[in-house]
Amino acid sequence: MEYFLKDQVFNAAGLAGVVLYLGSYALLQAGILRGSGYTYAILNLFASCLVLISLTVAFNLSSAIIQVSWIVISLMGIARLAWINGHVRFSAEENAMLQQVFADMPPPIARRFLNRGNWVDAAGGTILTEEGVPVANLYYLADGKAEIISGEQVICTITSGLIGEMNVLSGGEASATVRIAATSRLFVISGDTLRGLSARDPDFRILLEKGMSRDTGRKLMSANARWSAQAATN
């Protein structure tokens, strides 16, 4: 009875390892996990350890070699990520941008993204996007003020967030004109550069689109709150 229970425990460990292997791979293919992230490496580490434990009651040299190799590779990957993340540095304004818009973006990916763009000071009157004209750049307004203009009417102003995120990846036409209302600090990166980065790194595209979607939602909620407040006072 004791040996039977022992066998069952080790078999359960092996099955759990298989579930972790298949589950992590399924999540990777579904785009929920990133192959370059800690979670995927840690799940594979635990999976290989569990399968290796199960081999103590039904040893197979080939399988054991595979599991030990997978453990070593996973540990190397985790150590590499820790080293890279520990050596990536951001300025104060870069950190502020990442925290507001791209909080989920791992430091190495964020560093590559930021290195492809530039920080600029824009004077009042500068046009960032023009209604009906294809969007060429993605902007992040870090400090200052920009006016959103549609049909020659200023419909609202923004003091922070992304500009051009709705159509920059597709190169579609801007739905409104965005004009700097006062001297502002901006991060700018071209649409061509973003498309190139997205084509080479699917993880980056997912994180970029997620951040842009979140920022658009934040601005819509802010606009709705302002309109509700104005309606209440009228």
Short overview:
The chain has 234 residues and is α+β, with helices and mostly antiparallel strands. It has helices at 2-29, 38-54, 61-87, 92-101, 107-115, 191-200, 202-233; strands at 118-122, 127-129, 137-150, 153-158, 161-163, 177-190.
Task: Report on the architecture of this protein.
By secondary structure, this protein is an alpha+beta fold. The protein has helices at 2-29, 38-54, 61-87, 92-101, 107-115, 191-200, 202-233; strands spanning 118-122, 127-129, 137-150, 153-158, 161-163, 177-190. The protein has 2 domains: 2-87, no CATH class; 92-233, Sandwich (Jelly Rolls). The protein is built from 7 helices and 6 strands; from the N terminus they run αααααββββββαα. Strands 1, 2, 3, 4, 5 and 6 form a 6-stranded antiparallel beta sheet that branches. Strand 3 (137-150) and strand 4 form a beta hairpin. It is elongated and about 75 Å long. It starts with a helix and ends with a helix.
Descriptive keywords:
elongated, 2 domains, alpha+beta, Jelly Rolls, 7 helices, 6-stranded antiparallel sheet, about 230 residues
Set down the secondary structure blueprint.
Elements lengths: L1 H28 L8 H17 L6 H27 L4 H10 L5 H9 L2 E5 L4 E3 L7 E14 L2 E6 L2 E3 L13 E14 H10 L1 H32 L1
Antiparallel strand pairs: 1-6, 2-6, 3-4, 3-5, 3-6
* CATH architecture term of the largest domain: Sandwich
Mean pLDDT: 87
CATH class of the largest domain, anyone? Mainly Beta
Q: Into how many domains do the coordinates divide?
A: 2
| Pattern of helices and strands | HHHHHEEEEEEHH
Might you state the CATH topology name of the largest domain?
Jelly Rolls
* CATH level-4 homologous superfamily of the largest domain: Jelly Rolls
End-to-end gap: 80 Å
Oligomer: single chain
Largest beta-sheet details: 6 strands, antiparallel
Overall helicity: 55-70%
Name the beta content range.
15-25%
Radius of gyration: 25 Å
How many E-type strands?
6
Helices, by number, come to 7
Structure class: alpha+beta
General form: elongated
